[in-house]
Every structure is written in C-alpha cells, then in structure tokens.
TrEMBL record:
Its EC number is 2.6.1.16. Catalyzes the first step in hexosamine metabolism, converting fructose-6P into glucosamine-6P using glutamine as a nitrogen source. It comes from the Archaea. The chain holds residues 245 to 598 of 598 of the full protein. Residues 41-180, 204-344 form the SIS domain. Homodimer. Keywords: Aminotransferase, Cytoplasm, Glutamine amidotransferase, Repeat, Transferase. The keyword Nucleotidyltransferase does not apply. This is Glutamine--fructose-6-phosphate aminotransferase [isomerizing]. The keyword Nucleotide-binding does not apply. One of its GO terms (biological process) is protein N-linked glycosylation. The lineage of its organism: Archaea, Methanobacteriati, Methanobacteriota, Stenosarchaea group, Halobacteria. It catalyses: D-fructose 6-phosphate + L-glutamine = D-glucosamine 6-phosphate + L-glutamate. Transmembrane segments: none annotated.
Length: 354
C-alpha cells in the first residue's frame, strides 16, 4: 500500500499522476517543437510514403488518435489491431513506416506485427513506456513516452503519454509545427490538474450506478476517446459499455438505447460538435440520460442531464482532457461497486501470448 501514496488504488494514483506524465513526456521535446527541429527518435527519418500504426487495447485507441494527427498533416496513416495485421493482407514495404504503440513493449500480437514489418524491410518505430523492452530493442527506432511505471492493469497515464508522444511525433515527422498547438501543450498539465481538482465525475458515477449499460459517442479526434471510455468502463466495472463514432449510432446501437443507458457525449471544439449534438438529441428523444463532456464550444448543456467540463485548449488536445473525465467516471463506478480495480478479473497488464 505504501506505493499508493495515500490513494485507495494505484489506478486513482496514476490518474492523478497524469499532469506529471505529460510534463515528463514533453521534457525537452517541447523546446524541440518550438525550435521546429526534429531531434527526437524521428530525427533523420524522411516523411514516409505511408504510416501504419499497430497496437492492442488502449494503445490501439492512442494509435487511432495518432492516425488522425498524421492525416491532418497530409500523411496517409492507418491504425491496425495488431492481432489482425498479419492475417489481413496489409500491404507493407520498404517505404512504409510501421509504428508499434505499446505501453509494455512486450504484447505478443504487437511484436508479431512489428516482426512482420521488419521482415519486409519496413522502417519500424516503437512508441513505448518501457526502456529496453522487446519492441524498443527490435524496432529500428524507439520513442519513449516516459509515463513512469504503471501498476494498475487498466492503462491510464500511459494512454495520455502515448497521445502526447504521438502529437510530438506527428509534428516532428512531418515538419509541420503549429505554434498554437505547442503553446497549448505547455498549458496542458495545468489544465489536466484543474479537471482532476474540479471533476463532477463521482456524482455522475453515483447517479448512474445501476445503469444497464453505458454508451460513449464522439467524432473525429473524440471517436478514439469514446472507444477508450467504454473499454475503461468494461475493464474495471464489469458492466456493459460500448463506444461508437457518433455517426454510427443510428446504424444499430440506437436500438440499445433506453432510459437505463446513459450516453456520454464528447462535444469539443473542432470535433464536429453540431453533428454530435444531433446524435445527443436522438438519444434524448429515446429517454436516455445524457452526460456531455465538453469545453463549452456549443449549447450541448441544454440537452444534457450532467455536464463534465474540460478547459478550452487546442482542438487536437481536447480529447486528452475529455478522456480524464471518463477515466474518473469509470473509476468511481467501479469503486462504488466494490470491484477489484487494480487487478480486474481475467485481465493481465501485459499479454504475452497471441
Ligand atoms: C493488456 C492490458 C491493456 C493494454 C493492452 C496492450 O490487455 O490490460 O491495458 O492496453 O494489453 O498493452 P500494451 O503494453 O501493448 O500497450
């Protein structure tokens, strides 16, 4: 218990370590960004013809976020579930950069995908938290996310660190340095701290403790966070949860929506807020409680039963803050249900079998 620094669970401690995790990830790199030079692990990498990101679980959600950042800078980037990579006839060649996003650097499926990429002469890069891990050793390059050790099985601070590392990587790889984004990165740890200090997540968790299921929706940058919000909820509460790109709601999931299925809607600047509010209205009409996670960019409050606020930041970073609100909701639901939060049943921190 000494390692928990007074928190009841490692997960809560690690959620609270996220401002520090961001600072560690950015240490020196933010100066590189300001000087518009790539001196990190991507130095001397030319802009590849295409980029493929391979990952599992939470890291896959970070990979999806990374593809969005790269595509915005004109790089054709695709994220693959590592377990599907070698069976899915993915075209990969010497002009491809394959990025393995893996906290542990040991996940068997991710390692298999990276080895496949190595075998055809692709350039490989590990974005990992563990120095000297298999991924770091076997890839051509390694970029460390520097989150520090994560004990809780459910990834929290390492996800945030992966997101930040991918922001840095996308800028350095393409040479597209956005002054507003760099400024926003500097403010991000303090803003994340304010989310932790002022969150109403515990109240929301108590209100919807008996829900039949929890749904999460978002568009653009927020779509991976919707998936991650649902995964976190499943992992530690054992309750049914699903995340969707908001536009998919009407193609099936809407049939599941009732007054006993709260819908968490991620509505932030630059991530199609108007369209997501359209989806919010659809679920509201069906009696579903709505929890808006928002930076105040719209009038979504009018349709929401609860609002979980995040500070205004660069549109690409709003999902980083929004995710923290969802982590806290899952944590408090699991806590109130008396779950084994740090070691959920049937799950392992690192899965070393395919
Ligand atoms: C396990 C963990 C997840 C993690 C996934 C990928 O399933 O329980 O939290 O996201 O592995 O792990 P990696 O170390 O490759 O990021």
């Amino acid at each position: 218990d000494a390692g928990k620094s007074g928190y009841d669970h490692y997960m809560l401690k690690e959620i609270h370590e996220q401002p520090t995790a961001i600072r560690q990830c950015l240490h020196e790199r933010v100066v590189e960004l300001e000087r518009e030079i790539a001196v990190d692990s991507v130095a001397s990498l030319s802009v590849p013809d295409r980029v493929q990101l391979v990952a599992c679980g939470t890291s896959y959600h970070a990979a999806l976020y990374g593809t969005r950042l790269l595509r915005e800078r004109g790089v054709p980037a695709t994220a693959f579930l590592a377990s599907e990579y070698d069976v899915d006839a993915v075209p990969v060649d010497r002009e491809t950069l394959v990025i393995g996003v893996t906290q542990s650097g040991e996940t068997a499926d991710t390692m298999t995908a990276l080895r496949e990429a190595n075998s055809v002469g692709a350039t490989t890069l590990a974005v990992t938290n563990v120095v000297g891990s298999s991924a770091a050793r076997e890839c051509d390059r390694a970029m460390y996310v520097r989150a520090g050790p994560e004990i809780g099985v459910a990834a929290t601070k390492t996800f945030v660190s992966q997101q930040i590392a991918l922001v840095v990587l996308a800028s350095e790889l393409t040479g597209e340095y956005d002054v507003d984004l760099v400024g926003a990165l500097r403010d991000l740890p303090g803003q994340l701290q304010s989310v932790l200090d002022d969150s109403r997540a515990r109240t929301v968790a108590e209100e919807y403790l008996d829900a039949d299921a929890y749904f999460f929706i978002g568009r653009s940058y927020n779509a991976p966070v919707a998936l991650e919000g649902a995964l976190k909820m499943k992992e530690i509460t054992y309750k049914h949860a699903e995340g969707f790109a908001a536009g998919e709601l009407k193609h099936g999931p809407l049939a599941l929506v009732t007054d006993r299925t709260p819908v968490f809607a991620l509505v932030t600047e630059g991530a199609n807020p108007t369209k997501t509010i359209g989806n919010v209205k659809e679920v509201e009409t069906r009696g579903a409680p709505v929890v808006a996670v928002t930076d105040g960019c719209s009038d979504v409050e009018r349709y929401a039963d609860f609002v979980l606020e995040v500070p205004e930041t660069h549109p690409a970073l709003a999902p980083v803050l929004a995710n923290v609100q969802l982590q806290l909701v899952s944590y408090w639901v699991a806590n109130d249900l008396g779950r084994s939060i740090d070691k959920p049943r049937n799950l392992a921190k690192s899965v070393t079998v395919e």
